[in-house]
Fold:
Amino acid sequence: MELHSTQKTERAIVVGLVANKVSRYQVRDYLDELIRLADTAGVEVVHKITQERDGIQPATYLGKGKINEIALIVEQEKIELVIFDDDLSAMQVRNLEKVIKCKIIDRSGLILDIFASRAKTKEAMTQVELAQLQYMLPRLTRAWTHLSKQYGGVGTKGPGETQLEVDRRAVRTRIGHLKEKLEGISVERSVQRSRRKEWTRVALVGYTNAGKSTLLKQMSGADVFIEDRLFATLDTTVRQVAISQTKRILLSDTVGFIRKLPPHLIASFRSTLAEVVEADVVLHVVDVSHPQFEEHVCVVRETLQELGAGEKPTVMVFNKIDALQDRALVTSLGKEYENAVFISASRGINISSLKEKILEVLEHELKEQVLHLMPSDYRLISKLHEFVEILEKEYDEDNTMKVRFRFDKKFDGRLKKLLGRSGIKKESLK
Ligand SMILES: Nc1nc2c(ncn2[C@@H]2O[C@H](COP(=O)(O)OP(=O)(O)OP(=O)(O)O)[C@@H](O)[C@H]2O)c(=O)[nH]1
Ligand SMILES: [Mg+2]
Structure:
């Protein structure tokens, strides 16, 4: 089955619902973001429509009057696409398409489409196709004509029941095949990552367009893709960066997050995001000049939590301070957030404070210990060298060697195992 991305220059209407606990202002912001997403996909949004009601209409999502209103605009202005901010069920799409005579998609479908057109590497393309098919599968219903129109294949009236079964089976087979392929890639990746185990690893994370790639470029001189559009980065780039005269780290940049990132995408991008999960420190980059930056912070935190990286030592990197009008915000955010730094990645402002902050957070993760080794235990030293930094060695009269060393808390278990096997006594300093 061939998947096409949305054609360029399509004209669209975006639709949001003011219901439940979501306010009118929030919906307005969500629609603004949806318009940026549409723009990234090459779609021009010509109308923004909202409806206020008590709740979602289960069968049709919107109320009847609103649907007719949209249908009329679509017909009169020859609109090709209606994009809903919330996810729609197969049944809702089916019912809406009975009245609104054009293609109907939702936020997840649009995000998947952007990912599809942006994916360049074999890994990213496989990950996106898997997420697309998983998104599509429950929507493969008899009258889901949108699917056939958008993806070609089985006529415009929707596939018949037999054809549908064939299609479902084909999709499932392809999903299985893609999963296997990703499994292979993920093994390759984990081998690459294990080579970096002895390094201090720092991961850039953040909402899409926050300036992560710009910061990587600023700190490492790497030539990475930067664009004022959403989801410029879909892969992981890792570069060496010196954060002091003696300390070098590996800094990684990866795919950005967004509100309602389809769960299938998060799942299939797991191997890309492993760099974040395994990082020692996370740099959470925030576009502080964006009016909704606080909501962005929440979305990123929730996504990190989902990935199992919610409790990592984190530096809050408030970026784009050059574009900030309200300087008082810096003071209040400094009080509100732990480990906050205020920078401009594109102008190179305060990058040295960021490096100092990373060092400070790393120091916090270090532990010091002292061991008393008998001559028969001296061979342990070479093993210790693999993951600790020896600070001092001293010999006592009875030939015992006193070793003082420092190591990352993450190697606690490894040290215990090593010492447990040798039955050596230790003193903890910190
Ligand atoms: N004014 C200002 N703009 C910035 C700054 N840092 C980055 N930008 C701009 O913000 C836009 C997005 O930057 P990227 O570095 O591509 O952002 P990203 O977080 O990597 O985005 P994705 O890869 O899409 O998730 C670009 O137009 C950058 O030039 C900054 O410090 N100040
Ligand atoms: Mg980027």
